[in-house]
Amino acid sequence: MSPEVGLVTAVLAVSTGAILVRWSDAPSSVAAFYRVLFTTLPLLPVAAWRYRDQFGRIDRRDLGFATLSGVALALHFASWFESLEWTSVAASVTLVQAQPVFVALGAWLLLRERVTRRIAVGIGVAVGGIVAMSLGDFLGGVLVGPAPLYGNGLALFGAVTAAGYVLAGRSLRQRLALVPYVVVVYGVCTVSLLALVLAQGHPLSGYPPREWAVFLGLAVGPGLFGHTVINWVLGYLESSVVSVSLLGEPVGATVLALVLLGEAPTRFTVVGGVIVLSGIYFTTTGTDR
């Protein structure tokens, strides 16, 4: 499979994530837990067979950053899955995709990375689109979802925590191989989501076969064929190309929501979404790579 075909496959796969969450009747934190768990389990034999010696070489500092990365990833999944209960698929997926904007801001504030004029323009455009998307439907009186402002806020929090996941892992990937890194991070993420599920009092079993199929679909589709393939593609294509291509996820998810859920986005969501995606494009293509 060529990297280009792999990238198209990955974008299509991640576009199904929001639809699968919507099809699930289980609590959002339970769906998030099983997505990460089922994504992690196939990696454990590979890690134990080929990378077992590398786990002992992870020092305390790196383990701390990996833990922070895993907790941030858990918060990302929990907040984004929950946002889909309250707002439209189009708004939720577009807003959570604003992660590169917050990565650029975090890298400037925490890592003292340079912010180019193009990045600054991209951030400003994306923020304007977020405001238009979040407030336009509310002020216009046409709403999709029981509490769109709340859902949009959760999706934005998901973008911020995803940015924290990326920033925490940025230096770790320079020293750790991919499989040991993701096993530690996914392991922490799984334990964190398990703690959240138990704290909320949700059951871990007793779900019908349809729910288990959705949980498995979340792991195999967006997890295995989505993010795992993206990590493979990054070894062959420039990260800026991959980042911009991922802007197809909100478009794909919106089309799938229209076809499979009968959920048509409002005009404010469409216009605001186009503005947000334009801002993300400027931000990702303006970052020094």
Automatic annotation (TrEMBL):
One of its GO terms (cellular component) is membrane. Signal peptide: none annotated. The keyword DNA-binding does not apply. InterPro entries: EamA_dom, EmrE-like. SUPFAM superfamilies: Multidrug resistance efflux transporter EmrE. Residues 6-134, 151-284 form the EamA domain. The chain crosses the membrane at residues 33-51, 63-81, 87-111, 123-143, 149-167, 179-200, 212-234, 241-261, 267-284. The keyword Transmembrane applies. It comes from the Archaea. This is Permease of the drug/metabolite transporter (DMT) superfamily. It comes from Halorubrum aquaticum. The lineage of its organism: Archaea, Methanobacteriati, Methanobacteriota, Stenosarchaea group, Halobacteria.
